[in-house]
Amino acid sequence: MPVASNLLSETQYFPPIAFYAKARHFDQITIEAEENFQKGGYRNRCLIAGANGVQMLSIPLVQGKHQQANIKEVRISYTENWQSNHWRSIQSAYGKSPFFEYYELDLEKFYTKEYLYLFEWNMDLLKTIRDLMQFEFEIERSTAYHPTPTNDTYDFRNKLSPKTHKENGQALMRYPQVFEAKNGFIPNLSILDLLFCAGPEATKYLETKPNK
User: Fold this and answer.
1) In the list 37, 71, 106, 209, which could disulfide-bond 66, CB 3.0-4.6 Å?
2) Domain count across the chain
3) Quick check: is 39 in a domain?
4) Are 199 and 98 in contact (CB under 8 A)?
C-alpha cells in the first residue's frame, strides 16, 4: 500500500489497465488540469483489441496542434464522425464479450453527446468507469501546476505510454480476452477490455502478480 493517499495523473481517454491497478490503492485521484497538452500519450488515445490485434482509437482535436495550450482548453473536433466510428469499433471488438450488454448503455451515451473540451469528456468517462467498477476513490482536478508534488501525492504523470503498453502490463494478471485464441493475450489495453471481458470480476485481475 503506497504511503501517499493521492495519485496525480494526466487526463486519459479510457486509461489503460495499469492505471487502475495503481489507482485502486489510493483514496483520491487528482487529474492534472494545469499542464500544457502533450501529444503521443493517452490524453486523446486508447487501445482496444479487435479481431486483427491492437487498435488505437484517437479523438481528433480542433486545429491539430496544442503543445502550448492548457489541457482544459483543448477542444474536440467534430469535422469527422469519430464518435460513431469509435463506438462501431468498440462494438466490433467487444460485442461478443461476456459483459458487453451489461455495460453497453452506460457507455454508448457518451458517443451520442458532443463535448466541447477533451478534459471534460475524459473526466466524465473516468467517473463512469469508477462507478461501474465500484472503486471508492474520489476524483478531483488540480488547481495549480507543481513540478514536484507534496509528499502525500504519488506523481503518476506520464508514466504510461501507448508505445510501451506491453511492458507496462507485464506484472498484471491475465484474463480471458475475446480474440485471445487468434492474437494471443495482449496486456495493458484500455480498461474497456478488462471491463467487457471480466465484468464484476474485473477488479481481481488488477492484482500485480507476474504472469506464468
Assistant:
1) 37
2) 1
3) yes
4) yes
